[in-house]
Write a structure and sequence with these properties.
heterodimer, A: 4-stranded parallel beta sheet, B: about 325 residues, alpha/beta, Rossmann fold, 2 domains, 5-stranded parallel beta sheet
Chain lengths: ~170, ~325
């Protein structure tokens, strides 16, 4: 992958991601779970674009992270909300940026504490490489390569518009 | 850091994070708020199919109860188990302490069993502080200490769960008038409540009690003192009842429990003087017919059982924050 010179357009990626998912979702039976915070915003967009019936869930992986002993609890830990029965469900985990895969592992561990899903897929806006676990996205319209010293973050403006920002660690 | 330039509280590490929870006195407002904020997502864990999160997996939490307790010990045990810790309960009033082992010898022995956290209840004020100090002096400050009630000094997790309860029902601390009623003299709960309420910016904290059940100089804690319960309850948003601590009474502080109920028992008639939407709290165990009438304890304004439920989430938050600040 080339080193990014220009950041992707988050709004365009939301549209592209919804189109990639459309043939693979059942509006009456597929449920979305967004990962705090950026994944929740993307899940809201996908939910509307795909016309899904089941309300989207949100997940906060702070209690399941594998780096708790080094980093402790974050100050802004949010409540996970899964407003549907996980048992036997088709769930799409939604996040903004896929990186090491550790957040996704934590999210799957957490989901299994609510029940046993029939199937879990993963939808992300972009894949920045650097995987540390054998995890791959099911739906991903974009990829780029970034040095480890940079964080790619999704931000939401007051009018609800989504955009990417690059933060130096 | 106090205004008198005293050294930083021993319960905070060099980054200002909680290392131990010994008392609410001196804790900065942002630390208190952080604990309450952290407790909120933990309360949701109890709604899951699997009521557990893996934060303290592989950690050993020792409940050291040198004084009897059912509710506090049980809720600490549930909280630690919901964090996936291994919990070992020791009722020391019935064990080695009776054979003459000192407090610090007990702590040393349990530390040698690879303890990660001590939850300490003791009849002597300062016992948890002594253990924390000893651990630091012997290079074992990776072991965290939580005060589960020491003498008349402090009961910080009770104070915190009370704040969580108030915030749940009343939202903004800076708009509230709150009355603490009863045996303030013997109550570590009252001290923790007063420190928490004033730190969180409650503009008017009242204490209502007979002179014999108030410590001298209680006004210096920033409270308004009332001896007439009817006068003190007028217009309050929250009524925090205290248990009449018969087992701590020495000498003739009260004529009789019937007399006490007449003057300081919370009846529906007295509660009617508070705001119509006032909530009634009690740390338990209740003495029905002594400090509280059953019609109030079981009535629509009582939030006494939600306090117990919130206590689990608050204790989970405290233990998870301590374990994450190694």
């Amino acid at each position: 992958m080339p080193i990014a010179t220009q950041l992707p357009d988050a709004e365009a990626l939301c549209v592209a991601l919804a189109e990639a998912m459309r043939p693979h979702v059942d509006p009456a039976a597929t449920a979305l779970v967004g990962i705090h915070t950026g994944g929740v915003w993307v899940a809201e967009r996908l939910h509307a674009a795909l016309g899904l019936k089941i309300p989207p869930g949100s997940i906060n992986v702070s209690f399941y992270r594998d780096d708790f002993s080094q980093r402790g609890l974050p100050a802004n830990a949010k409540t996970s909300q899964i407003p549907f029965d996980v048992e036997g469900a088709h769930i799409v985990i939604v996040d903004d940026v896929l990186y090491t895969g550790r957040t996704i592992r934590a999210a799957m561990n957490e989901l299994f504490d609510y029940g046993r899903p029939a199937r879990i897929d993963l939808a992300v806006l972009t894949d920045r490489g650097g995987r540390e676990l054998p995890i791959a996205p099911s739906f991903c319209p974009h990829s780029l390569s970034l040095p480890a010293a940079q964080i790619l973050a999704l931000e939401r403006a007051e009018d609800g518009g989504l955009s990417f920002r690059l933060i130096d660690k | 850091m106090s205004e008198f330039g005293k050294p930083q509280s021993p319960q905070l590490n060099s980054h200002g994070e909680l290392q131990h929870l010994l008392t609410i006195e001196g804790l900065p407002r942002d630390v208190l708020t952080r604990i309450l904020d952290t407790a909120a997502p933990f309360s949701e864990v109890a709604e899951r199919e699997v009521k557990k999160v893996p934060l303290l997996r592989g950690k050993s939490v020792f409940n050291l109860f040198f004084e009897n307790s059912t509710r506090t010990r049980t809720t600490f045990e549930i909280a630690a188990k919901r964090l996936s810790a291994d919990v070992i309960n020791l009722n020391i009033s019935t064990s080695s302490a009776n054979k003459g082992e000192t407090l610090l010898d007990t702590a040393d022995n349990l530390a040698a069993m690879q303890a990660d956290m001590f939850v300490v209840r003791h009849a002597s004020s300062g016992a948890p502080y002594l253990i924390a100090q000893h651990l630091a002096a012997t290079g074992r400050d990776h072991i965290h200490v939580v005060n589960a009630g020491d003498g008349r000094h402090a009961h910080p997790t009770q104070g915190l769960l009370d704040m969580y309860t108030i915030r749940h029902y009343k939202a903004d601390f800076t708009q509230l008038t709150i009355a603490i009623v009863g045996d303030v003299l013997h109550s570590r709960v009252a001290r923790s409540q007063i420190h928490a309420l004033t730190t969180l910016g409650v503009p008017e904290v009242r204490v209502i009690a007979p002179k014999t059940l108030l410590p001298t100089g209680v006004e210096r804690l920033g409270v308004r003192v009332f001896h007439d319960m009817r006068e003190g309850l007028r217009g309050v948003d929250v009524v925090m009842m205290l248990r009449l601590q018969n087992e701590r009474m020495q000498g003739a502080l009260l004529p009789s429990s019937q007399e006490y109920f007449k003057s300081y028992g919370l009846t529906p008639e007295k509660l009617a003087l508070a705001k119509p939407d006032a909530i009634v709290m009690h740390p338990g165990p209740m003495n029905r017919g002594v400090e509280i009438d059953s019609a109030v304890a079981d009535g629509g304004q009582a939030v006494i059982l939600p306090q117990v439920t919130f206590g689990i989430a608050v204790r989970m938050a405290v233990m998870a924050m301590l374990a994450g600040n190694s």
